[in-house]
Design brief:
Low-confidence stretches: 1-35
CATH topology: Rossmann fold
Strand content: 5-15%
Largest sheet: 8 strands, mixed
Shape: globular
Number of strands: 8
Number of domains: 1
Order of helices and strands: HHHEHHHHEHEHHHHHHHHEHHEEEEH
Oligomer: single chain
Radius of gyration: 23 Å
Structural class: alpha/beta
CATH class: Alpha Beta
Mean pLDDT: 92
CATH architecture: 3-Layer(aba) Sandwich
């Protein structure tokens, strides 16, 4: 009965999915061409629902918890759009637009109007659907757990950063759960805001991190050196010369060309997230794949050093995520100890929390720091914003219990999913068998120093 309901609920988004399939070509075709949208990349699950390992015999799921980034959203403001429009208008006045350049301004205005229509920074229709579909797949992976939650009326705890796009993501996710199993409505608790847990990068206790981002000389020098790479000016010049006549382009300083190209890239990377509100308005044709990849790398470098693994020997970018890791353990431990009746704990946050948590946990792509003498780049480090923290990125821990042993003590296993892919814990942690993604809860406590 429940599985039928889930499959039926999945069809509710058919119309939206059709829109995304046609309007979201920047997200699909762009990726096929190798373009980079960095952390603006729309979400896609990383594993087929039919390919998950089965829990060992005798184990049943009794609890699940997640940490999820908000879904796709509008750009934060119209600053980049206004900057692009201003130079386009200046060029038009001077007769300095190419045929391609003349096509850009209407598309930028459409994107800005789309962002304004939902509120800059707010969750888009695509973002809401990312959350709903992720919720439906969670139910499909754990049907027995959600049947039990519904039957028992066990609480589903919902926590957010309090930022509008995070609370809207929580609402969309829980709506997906209820669409799949209407009886879960009675289990859902009203969302609560916990900024110390889910917006920790902005809190007073992390003033040292804020000072690092604002004033650290090593960080500033490294990012300045990366930006000053000749390829930045080359990509900017190439972009400008496709959109402006040679005569007009020659009047622009290198700084103006670079500022324009980077603002254009910011719009380019935001466009797929507004695939519904600005249907058909991608900016793929205005940036060649190599140029988009370079500007995407510049954004990734900033993310890597400010929120990811960062410099070798320094923990300032990710140690603050300890509060989230502690809570993941605490919720699982409370459930195992019988001191929590919750069936699920759902958390909705931001890239600024997901990226450091990934580094702290040693998740794939987030294990390698950068030697100060050899700056981060795509050739020497696997970290990619599109993989580590795309829109709606998520980490999930599922807790499984076996019947009590002869001493009356039940055994507990944990399985971790990262962007819905079964993921091993760090090498110091040993699964129950070689190649298994199931770990004893007590083993995880040991290898993370909680025992």
């Amino acid at each position: 009965m429940k599985r039928t309901a889930v499959l039926t609920a999945a069809t509710l988004a058919t119309a939206l999915a059709a829109t995304l399939a046609t309007a979201g070509t920047a997200g699909a075709q762009g990726a096929a061409r190798g373009d980079s949208y960095g952390t603006k990349t729309p979400y896609a699950p990383q594993q087929d629902l039919r390919r998950y390992q089965q829990a060992p015999a005798g184990y049943t799921p009794v609890f699940t918890e997640n940490v999820a980034r908000h879904g796709s959203r509008a750009m934060s403001d119209r600053e980049d759009g206004d900057a692009v429009l201003a130079l386009l208008a200046e060029a038009e006045q001077a007769g300095g637009l190419t045929g391609l350049g003349a096509q850009l301004a209407p598309r930028v205005r459409t994107l800005l109007d789309a962002g304004a229509s939902i509120g800059y920074g707010n969750l888009s229709a695509r973002g809401a659907d990312e959350q709903r579909q992720t919720a439906l797949r969670m139910e499909q992976r754990l049907p027995g757990l959600f049947d039990a939650i519904a039957a028992q009326g066990a609480p589903i705890v919902v926590e957010t950063s309090g930022v509008t796009r995070a609370t809207a993501s929580a609402d969309a996710f829980t709506a997906g759960l209820v669409a799949g199993e209407p009886a879960l409505a009675g289990s859902l608790k009203a969302p609560v805001t916990d900024k110390n847990l889910l917006y920790f990068h902005k809190q007073p206790q992390n003033a040292d991190y804020q000072a690092y981002v604002a004033h650290d000389p090593q960080l500033a020098a490294t990012l300045a050196a990366i930006d000053a790479d000749p390829r930045t000016a080359e990509a900017a010049r190439h972009t400008v010369r496709r959109l402006f006549t040679a005569a007009f382009a020659d009047t622009l300083t290198t700084e103006r060309q670079t500022a324009f190209a980077r603002s254009l890239y910011a719009l380019y990377s935001a466009a797929p997230d507004l695939a519904v509100e600005a249907r058909g308005t991608d900016l793929d044709r205005f940036l060649t794949p190599p140029d988009a990849q370079w500007f995407g790398y510049l954004d990734d470098a900033e993310e890597f050093y400010q929120k990811g693994p960062g410099f070798t020997g320094r923990t300032i970018t990710y140690k603050m995520a300890g509060v989230l890791l502690d809570d993941l353990f605490a919720q699982a431990e409370h459930k195992a100890a019988g001191t929590s009746g919750a069936g699920a704990v759902l958390r909705f946050t931001h890239a600024e929390e997901i990226e450091p948590l990934a580094a702290l946990l040693g998740l794939p792509g987030s294990t390698r720091q950068a030697d100060p003498a050899q700056p981060y780049d795509y050739a020497n480090n696997p970290w990619r914003g599109a993989d580590v923290a795309p829109m709606a990125a998520n980490l999930q821990w599922d807790l499984y219990r076996a019947a009590p042993d002869a001493k009356g003590k039940p055994a507990y296993l944990v399985r971790m999913l990262y962007n819905e892919k079964e993921t091993a814990f760090k090498d110091a942690c040993h699964p129950i068998a070689k190649g298994s993604y199931f770990y004893g809860l007590d083993e995880l406590e040991r290898c993370f120093g909680r025992a």
